[in-house]
């Protein structure tokens, strides 16, 4: 009888305990659902009351761990992989290496040159810095100038290497005046160091006048071997006889093909962009004065790609010991050159 009573109470206790565990599990699941609904879509966060509830459940429910599903094993594995990737990304981060940074004053000088000479690009500014004794690469100069609005101009080096020695080009271009007259400018360009050998202005060009300009451009013993020109009728037979007498062979371009005489065409474009497009010409005397000033700047200070970033008249390099950098204006401040001068 006693054994029967013990068994009965044990069965009753087991049934009661199972009922209690079932109720605890239901309470735990409802609590988890309430937490998710309260904090979705944010990450679930348990407060003090939530932690106190789970402490009480753990006292009366031995299997409480199996009901916790806030973080699944897949989430833990994903966190581990993400942490592994972040760790090796940190280990593989770039170290401070490469060339030393450019000094702040040099960067300021590059920007100052670019502002003072808006028509210049990275090659021209690089040439100016070399003349000031500053060693810096052209790519670094381009980096601090930013992106270009137009593609860089091509070089003439490859073309000149394939040509005969001492070629030259001649051409005319027109300039309108303030009184709506048209003046003609005759230009003679030597390809050797991009030197403008001769320039003259007239309102009424003739074949005889053009032939006389060719004679004035070169003494008899310094004439080039070839002269490139177009098929304009202004040259005429007088120019042909003068060229033959000086031992010059004429090279004629194809009709309507100015690209076949690129050097003088580029020179004319430079004269227009860097000088004549920014002034008003009144007469021949005014035009000659502007051209003389531009030619002085062009020959003595303007650097050229084909001359290894040097001027047609070679410029001396000014080391830092010569003094501070000073900007000198040309053409009433339209262009500037930089040089070092003692204080």
Task: Walk me through what this model shows.
- The structure is a single chain.
- The protein is an alpha/beta fold and 343 residues long.
- 17% of the residues are buried.
- The chain is elongated.
- The protein has a five-stranded mixed β-sheet with strand order 3-2-1-4-5, with helices on both faces. Strands 6-7 form a two-stranded antiparallel ribbon.
- 46% of the residues lie in helices and 14% in strands.
- The termini are far apart.
- It contains eleven helices and seven strands.
- It folds into three domains: 2-83, no CATH class; 104-152 and 319-340, no CATH class; 157-307, Ribonuclease H-like superfamily/Ribonuclease H (Nucleotidyltransferase, domain 5).
- The longest helix is centred in the N-terminal third of the chain and has 38 residues, at 2-39.
| CATH top-level class of the largest domain | Alpha Beta
CATH topology of the largest domain: Nucleotidyltransferase, domain 5
Fourth CATH level, the homologous superfamily of the largest domain: Ribonuclease H-like superfamily/Ribonuclease H
Strand content: 5-15%
Key terms:
about 350 residues, alpha/beta, Nucleotidyltransferase, domain 5, 3 domains, five-stranded mixed β-sheet, two-stranded antiparallel sheet, elongated, disordered N terminus
């Amino acid at each position: 009888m006693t054994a029967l009573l013990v068994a009965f109470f044990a069965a009753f206790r087991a049934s009661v305990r199972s009922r209690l565990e079932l109720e605890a599990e239901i309470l735990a699941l409802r609590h988890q659902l309430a937490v998710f609904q309260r904090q979705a879509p944010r990450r679930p966060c348990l407060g003090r009351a939530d932690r106190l509830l789970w402490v009480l459940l753990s006292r009366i429910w031995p299997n409480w761990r199996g009901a916790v599903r806030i973080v699944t094993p897949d989430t833990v594995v994903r966190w581990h992989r993400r942490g592994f990737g972040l760790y090796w990304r940190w280990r593989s981060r770039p170290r401070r290496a490469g060339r030393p940074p450019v000094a702040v004053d040099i960067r300021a000088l590059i920007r100052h040159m670019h502002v003072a000479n808006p028509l210049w690009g990275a090659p021209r500014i690089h040439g100016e810095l070399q003349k000031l004794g500053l060693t810096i690469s052209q790519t670094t100069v381009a980096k601090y100038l930013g992106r270009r609005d137009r593609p860089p101009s091509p070089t003439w080096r490859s073309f000149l290497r394939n040509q005969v020695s001492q070629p030259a080009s001649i051409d005319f271009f027109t300039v309108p005046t303030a009184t709506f007259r048209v003046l003609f400018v005759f230009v003679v360009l030597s390809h050797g160091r991009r030197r403008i050998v001769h320039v003259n202005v007239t309102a009424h060009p003739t074949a005889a006048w053009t032939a006389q300009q060719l004679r004035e451009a070169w003494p008899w013993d310094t004439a080039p071997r070839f002269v490139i020109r177009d098929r304009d009728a202004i040259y005429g037979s007088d120019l042909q006889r003068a060229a033959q007498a000086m031992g010059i062979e004429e090279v004629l371009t194809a009709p309507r093909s100015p690209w076949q005489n690129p050097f003088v065409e580029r020179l004319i474009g430079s004269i227009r962009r860097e000088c004549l497009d920014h002034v008003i010409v009144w007469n021949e005397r005014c035009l000659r004065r502007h051209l003389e000033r531009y030619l002085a700047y062009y020959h003595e200070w303007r650097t050229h790609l084909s001359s290894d970033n040097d001027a047609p008249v070679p410029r001396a390099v000014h080391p830092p010991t010569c003094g501070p950098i000073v900007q000198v204006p040309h053409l009433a401040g339209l262009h500037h050159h930089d040089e070092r001068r003692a204080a």
